[in-house]
Amino acid sequence: MTAIRAVNVRKTYGKKENAFHALRGVSLDIQRGETVAIVGKSGSGKSTLMHLLALLDTPDDGTIHLDNKDVNGLRKSEVNKMRNSYYGFVFQQFFLNGRQSVLDNVMLPLVIGGVRPAERKRRARAALEAVGLSDKVKNRANDLSGGQKQRVVIARALVNEPSIIFADEPTGNLDSHTGEQVEQMLFDLNKEKGITLVVVTHDPEFAARFDRQIYLRDGQIVAEERTAA
Ligand SMILES: Nc1ncnc2c1ncn2[C@@H]1O[C@H](COP(=O)(O)OP(=O)(O)OP(=O)(O)O)[C@@H](O)[C@H]1O
Q: What is the CATH number of the domain that holds 74?
């Protein structure tokens, strides 16, 4: 079943002589349970496409469908609710709050979702256990290593039991050993929980581990490859 469908989406930043066409008509289907890598050079439009698919931004033209529903027709509050309940994010710009505890950081999506305090704690602890950080729940987020921080971000992405995880260069700032652990964690979530993965990466080796690679150049899909099963 199709989880997300983008139909001929376009996005332009700026106006008139400053206009930059970041996406020039992109169409794409992502199936439930699939793992998809979006690959391309810097400036090719990867993050812009990811933001549209993740309902963090809206296209100037074209449509995004989530579970066969055209998102354009929905009210903003409905879109926010859908995003909060279906999606988990592992984005570099969604920083942890360094002064708050690891547990508080992971509970944030549940606070936004209106989950009661006792249930919030229970679920956040379970998510932290899943990423091997049970012993760090009370630490301040600042007092963790880079790899541990990234695992907290994954726990926070998981805590809502999302159907889809979006990740933007999730291993970009990590050493190769820690990066490998974080990669494995994402693929395990796909295998064990059936979570769909949509990841932006520059790294060809990482991209090769996904079911499908989508290559962007100058705001258009120029190639698609499937990894042999
Ligand atoms: N808010 C904005 N205003 C103006 N131009 C923008 C804006 N956001 C992105 N762009 C431009 O759109 C193009 C695509 O940006 P995007 O971030 O999608 O690329 P990317 O492929 O993710 O690049 P990178 O790998 O460097 O993150 C770039 O040329 C960028 O400069």
A: 3.40.50.300
